[in-house]
Amino acid sequence: MRVALFITCVNDTLFPGTGKAVVSLLRRLGCDVDFPAAQTCCGQMHVNTGYREEGVRLARHFTEVFAGYDAVVAPSGSCAAMVREQYPKLAKPGSKGAAAIAELTPRVYELSEFLIDVLKTDDVGAYFPHRVTYHPTCHSLRGLRLGDRPTRLLQNVRGLELVPLGGAEECCGFGGTFAVKNPAVSAAMGTDKARNILDTGAEVLCAADNSCLMHIGGTLSRQKSGVRTMHLAEILAATEEAQ
């Protein structure tokens, strides 16, 4: 299977280790992974802020860059949801762009979707001997409706103790531009989320979006909690040999 990694802006700029983990994991599972260097932002920030035409341009570029792959995998529920949910709304009905989007979007997956729905596995051979709690980010929970896919994968990681997170379905307060426009509310929501995480006694907080982990992690760091944040891909890519 020829798979393209859609790295996303946040991961490419701030968390390149997540992209490397995705490549390592998928290759371990037998996929031929490519990284199209011409990829850019998916346009989520532009569309959400009212710059629709810029979003249309970026959507057109995305379909051109990722055409021809068997699957496009993103370590981000947020950006995968943007492509699948918003791109069809941006295209002019009946246009070539609409046809290209309709052809591509069914092959765009968030990482846990791809592993479970396409590769048909919930045990990727990972080893991570730590106490972990999982935060289901808003786009992955309400947009893509990932359900228990991420936790099924975590439950099959050898050595990992998965502990439930109180108020798991509550937003962490990041929300992209929401955190910029409403900083006080965002910080308060982040504090609530951090308190629930500390109550679990977990060593590591896991999520499928580094943007949310960045927000929550900032709060945990300022509190000197000692709790690490790790993307799902990094835990799933971990092996006993690498410990």
TrEMBL record:
<dbReference type="Pfam" id="PF02754">
    <property type="entry name" value="CCG"/>
</dbReference>
<feature type="domain" description="Cysteine-rich">
    <location>
        <begin position="3"/>
        <end position="83"/>
    </location>
</feature>
<dbReference type="InterPro" id="IPR004017">
    <property type="entry name" value="Cys_rich_dom"/>
</dbReference>
<protein>
    <submittedName>
        <fullName>(Fe-S)-binding protein</fullName>
    </submittedName>
</protein>
<feature type="domain" description="Cysteine-rich">
    <location>
        <begin position="132"/>
        <end position="216"/>
    </location>
</feature>
<dbReference type="GO" id="GO:0016491">
    <property type="term" value="F:oxidoreductase activity"/>
</dbReference>
<dbReference type="GO" id="GO:0005829">
    <property type="term" value="C:cytosol"/>
</dbReference>
